[in-house]
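Moderator note: this is an archived Q&A kept for reference. The question asked for a predicted structure of one protein chain; the sequence and the answer are reproduced below.
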Amino acid sequence: MHNYGIREATAADLDGARVVMLDAVYRDFGTGYVPRWHADIIDPEAFYLVPPRHTLLVAVDERDGTVAATAALDARGPAHPPNPRWLAERYPSGETAQLRRVYVRPEHRRRRLARQLVQDLLEFARADGGYRHVYLHTYPHSPGAMGLWQALGKVVLDEREEAPGGGSDVVHFEIPVV
């Protein structure tokens, strides 16, 4: 039985968090590191620890102190482009808590870590008081992602339906703030 400590990341957690995130973009997404998409992974301190309305949470395996999972929140809404203009307008920066980097190492999956991390991010967003929306995007092929997000929120755009066979496979969700 594993026990995990879930907490806001500190500088000491960043190397372990970076490993979890980079493993996910290479293994689960197959994209590898893409600077314009993944700058926050390389410098999580600047993106998540320094800005007061942002946070990075980690789940730490108490047996050996390794980071088993990550989850982040920031105040940046989806950008246009690449997203549709209406989506960027619906979820403006400053009013939107965007969930990012909700990743669990394969050997720690199926233990409700992602769900707990997301619940803690939602509490952070509520405590902030300035977020009107909680938004995220995901990829259907990401292990466990669709089931988690469908249980917690609603689909606002499924790009697979917008351009079948040739479009993106990104699915956009909104989760209630309250």
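Archived answer notes: DSSP finds seven helices and seven strands in the chain.
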